[in-house]
Amino acid sequence: MAKAILSTAIGALVASVGVIAATPQSATVQGFNGSFAPERWELFNSSPAFPGIDNSQLTINNVPLAPFNGSVDFTNAPDSLTLLGSNQSAILDQFGLSCSSPNLPVSALFLCDTSFTTVFVTVPEASIFSFNWDYTTTDSLGAAFDPFGFALGNFPPTDLRTDGVFTELIDRNGPARQSGTASVKIAANQVFGFQIGTADNQGGRAMTTISQFQVKRIDPEEPTSVPEPASVVAIALATGLGLRFSKSSRSGK
Hints:
It is built from 4 helices and 14 strands. It is α+β, with helices and mostly antiparallel strands. The protein has a single domain, classed as Jelly Rolls, CATH 2.60.120. The N terminus is likely disordered.
């Protein structure tokens, strides 16, 4: 009888150890799966210069002008995603126009201004995101005109109340092709987004592939870190004032 009780106790102990051992595995998501599967992410293209304007109603020769044409490609998910920044001047090419055309229709003026493209997700639990990124831009003036990084805030970027910060991951003075790794701690219910800022929507677009994506849940009682002030700027600054130099720089080339 005693041997049976001991055997049962040992069996229960082994089972409980198995549960404990399994917990770290279940607390980590590898790749774009589960709560971070492709269908959980949303894409948003915005023009801070024209808040509140329904750009989808603007046309040239009855051809609709999309708000902005950044996009996201989940073809290789769950292994990776690719974010493409906006290059709206490509629409003007169809009509033999450019951002500097003297006869550019008033309805198209917004095309050659700053914008940002964000693919974002609401993070249900306090987590640490880690990932590799591989960035390249075809913009003739280089990385300075198409910065890539991530946005973190309490509201989606589609909301005018957006209070997030944009953490730049590339070196704006660096080459057209760059890569690196990143890790960021996120509080429960915060909105995280991969983001490409576009200075003037002309000259070529940037793209970034995210791979080795991993989400590790953390103790919700553990305080989340705040990015260093030197590495972050308000989204409005990063995509608006911070990119305003673009027009004069490009025209002066």
